[in-house]
Task: inverse folding
C-alpha cells in the first residue's frame, strides 16, 4: 500500500518516515472470517494486534511488535442502498477508490479531507476531516460499522444497534477492535465552485467569522514570515462544470504546489536563512483562480512533498487569538518555517473522541519538511494550542497523554470504560494507546 510499508527486513514505516516498527508477523486477511481467525490466533500466541492503513498517520498509532494486519485484500464496495442513501465499503478501501467508484454511481460523500490516499478505516479511526460550516469529519458521515473485537467475534453497530459502541467506534483509534466494514451516508453527486485567492492575514483574521458563516467550506493557508494567506472557499454550484484546465492544473498543483515547493524546501533545508525570502516568493506565486467540479476533485489535491505535521483543534472562537500568538512566536524566534500553516473548521459532533466532540472547532496545522528538525517549532506551537484547551489530531505529532486528554474530552471516561469491556486484555494495545488512553 504505497511507499509507506517497505517490507525490507520486516520493518514497517509510515508515510512521513518518522515511525517504524518490526512486527512479529503480518497477515493480509481476505475476509472477515480470516481476520477473526487471525485475532484469535494472536491471542493464543500472546501477541498484540494492530491494523495499518496506508501509514498516513505521523503518530505511532498503528505500530506494533505483534501481528500487523494489512487491509489491502479487504477492499471494495459491499452494498449501495439507494433508498437509505448509504454505501457499505470494506475497511481497507482507499478513499481515492471510493470517491471514483461513488462518482461513477452518481454519488458522493458530503465532505472529505484534502488528501485521499488513506484507507476508509484508517482515515475515520484517526478523525480525518476537511473543513465545513455544517458538514463535519468523514467519521461523522458514518451510519454503521462492523468490527472484529478482541475475542474474535464480529460486532455491528449503528445508532439503533449497540449505540454506545457506535458513539465511540466511529473514531476508535484502533483501540476497540479491527474495523472490517463501514457504512457511509452518501448523496447524489453535486458540483462545488472553488474560489482560491490571496488575502492579507490581518484581513482574514478580522473577517474570519464572516468568511466562515458565508461559505459552506472555508479554509486558508498562512505563510509564516509573511503577512499573506491563500484562502479557499468551496460552495455548492448549479454549474456548469469548469474544471481547472489541464495546463493550469499541472502548473498550480504539480509544478508550484509540489515541484517548486519541493525544490524550495530542499533549499530551505540546506540554507534555513533563505526560508523567509522563499516564503515571500511562494506566497506571491499562487494567484487567484475559480473552478467548478465534482466534490473529490475540489476537496482533495495531491501531496507529493513529504512532511511531518502537528494539528490541534481549538474552540472556534479561540482561533484568531491562537493564530496571532503563533505568528508572534515565530516572528520573535529564529525558527525558519517553510511550510504554510493550514486552518480549517468543523461543527460540533457527537463522537466520543472526535476532536470536534461537543464544540465548534477550528483546526490549526503546522508542518515541517521531512528531514528538517521540527521539535522546537512543534513544541512552541503545542504550548499555544494547549493553552486554549486544544485537542490533538490522533494521527499527527503531539506529546499529550491520558492525564491531559481526559481533561479536554468530556466523554474520555466513557471511551475507556467501553475499551475495558471490549478489550479487557488489551489485545489492541500499543505504546501510543497506552500513552493517550492510559494503561
Result:
Amino acid at each position: 500500500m504505497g511507499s509507506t510499508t517497505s517490507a525490507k527486513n520486516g520493518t514497517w514505516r509510515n508515510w512521513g518516515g518518522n515511525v517504524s516498527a518490526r512486527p512479529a508477523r503480518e497477515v493480509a486477511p481476505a475476509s472477515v472470517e480470516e481476520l477473526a481467525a487471525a485475532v484469535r490466533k494472536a491471542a493464543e500466541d500472546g501477541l498484540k494486534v494492530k491494523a495499518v492503513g496506508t501509514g498516513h498517520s505521523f503518530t505511532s498509532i498503528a505500530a506494533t511488535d505483534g501481528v500487523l494486519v494489512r487491509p489491502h485484500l479487504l477492499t471494495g464496495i459491499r452494498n449501495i442502498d439507494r433508498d437509505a442513501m448509504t454505501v457499505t465499503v470494506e475497511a481497507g478501501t482507499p478513499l481515492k477508490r471510493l470517491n471514483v467508484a461513488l462518482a461513477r454511481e452518481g454519488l458522493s460523500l458530503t465532505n472529505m479531507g484534502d488528501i485521499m490516499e488513506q484507507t476508509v478505516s484508517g482515515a475515520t479511526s484517526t478523525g480525518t476531516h476537511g473543513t465545513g460550516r455544517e458538514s463535519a469529519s468523514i467519521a461523522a458521515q458514518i451510519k454503521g460499522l462492523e468490527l472484529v473485537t478482541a475475542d474474535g467475534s464480529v460486532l455491528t453497530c449503528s445508532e439503533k444497534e449497540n449505540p454506545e459502541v457506535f458513539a465511540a467506534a466511529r473514531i476508535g483509534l484502533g483501540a476497540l477492535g479491527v474495523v472490517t466494514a463501514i457504512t457511509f451516508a452518501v448523496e447524489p453527486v453535486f458540483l462545488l465552485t472553488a474560489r482560491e485567492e490571496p488575502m492579507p492575514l490581518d484581513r482574514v483574521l478580522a473577517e474570519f467569522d464572516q468568511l466562515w458563516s458565508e461559505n459552506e467550506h472555508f479554509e486558508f493557508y498562512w505563510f509564516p514570515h509573511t503577512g499573506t494567506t491563500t484562502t479557499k472557499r468551496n460552495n455548492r454550484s448549479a454549474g456548469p462544470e469548469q474544471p481547472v484546465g489541464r495546463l493550469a492544473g499541472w502548473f498550480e498543483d504539480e509544478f508550484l504546489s509540489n515541484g517548486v515547493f519541493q525544490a524550495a524546501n530542499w533549499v530551505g533545508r540546506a540554507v534555513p536563512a533563505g526560508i523567509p525570502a522563499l516564503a515571500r516568493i511562494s506566497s506571491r506565486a499562487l494567484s487567484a483562480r475559480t473552478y467548478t467540479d465534482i466534490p473529490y476533485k475540489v476537496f482533495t489535491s495531491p501531496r507529493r512533498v513529504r512532511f511531518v505535521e502537528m494539528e490541534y483543534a481549538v474552540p472556534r472562537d479561540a482561533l484568531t487569538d491562537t493564530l496571532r500568538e503563533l505568528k508572534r512566536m515565530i516572528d520573535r524566534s529564529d525558527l525558519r518555517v517553510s511550510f504554510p500553516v493550514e486552518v480549517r473548521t468543523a461543527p460540533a459532533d457527537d463522537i466520543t473522541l472526535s476532536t470536534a466532540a461537543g464544540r465548534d472547532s477550528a483546526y490549526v496545522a503546522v508542518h515541517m519538511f521531512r528531514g528538517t528538525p521540527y521539535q522546537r517549532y512543534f513544541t512552541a506551537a503545542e504550548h499555544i494550542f494547549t493553552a486554549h484547551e486544544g485537542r490533538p489530531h490522533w494521527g499527527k505529532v503531539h506529546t499529550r497523554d491520558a492525564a491531559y486528554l481526559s481533561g479536554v474530552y468530556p466523554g474520555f471516561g466513557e471511551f475507556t470504560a467501553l475499551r475495558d469491556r471490549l478489550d479487557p486484555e488489551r489485545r489492541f494495545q500499543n505504546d501510543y494507546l497506552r500513552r493517550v488512553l492510559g494503561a
About this structure: The chain is about 30% helix and 25% strand.
